[in-house]
Design goal:
single chain; mainly alpha; 0% strand
Length: 164
């Protein structure tokens, strides 16, 4: 039974049998099909951390953009969604003293869900001339009885959030 993945509830069950019921470690190991060393390790983790699984350390590089910067980028792009990556990079360098390459900025914006397609849609919706043309076309050519509105946001039964 080397390298088997043991669920958290099985580990908690082993500790319950050990600490609450007073079972012997060897009996628990045989009953649950795990090693006695694993049970001892879970007990140490529970004593030190209050949980059978130890907390995992933060792995990887720290992000270049913190929460304040990402919130301000959201606000900036809500005001002017037609900004280019180099303009956003210049804004970060000037106002937050955070120089960042366009590639890294693109990856961070993509992780935040701010893609070109999404921003293009937001920019088109903010265009007053385009909106006025659309409204004029709709009111001139259609009546309310001719319009049908359909919500297909959960068409694939996976999510209710639209993906741009």
């Amino acid at each position: 039974m080397v390298y088997q993945r043991i669920s958290r509830d099985r580990k908690e069950q082993a500790l319950y049998l050990l600490l609450e019921e007073g079972w012997d470690i060897e009996c628990i190991a045989v009953a649950l099909g795990v090693s006695s060393r694993s049970i001892e390790r879970w007990e140490v983790n529970y004593d030190e951390h209050g949980c059978v699984n130890p907390p995992t350390p933060i792995i990887g590089r720290p992000r270049l953009l913190d929460q304040v910067m990402t919130d301000e980028i959201h606000d900036l792009l809500a005001e002017t969604p037609s900004l280019l990556l180099d303009e956003i990079g210049e804004w970060l360098a000037i106002y937050h003293d955070q120089p960042i390459s366009t590639t890294t900025l693109h990856e961070n914006l993509r992780d935040l869900g701010l893609t070109y397609k999404c921003l293009k849609r937001v920019a088109a919706e903010c265009d007053d001339g385009f909106r006025a043309d659309w409204l004029h076309n709709m009111t001139a050519n259609y009546t309310a009885e001719q319009l049908v509105f359909l919500d297909e946001s959960s068409k694939d039964d996976r999510t209710i959030l639209p993906r741009y």
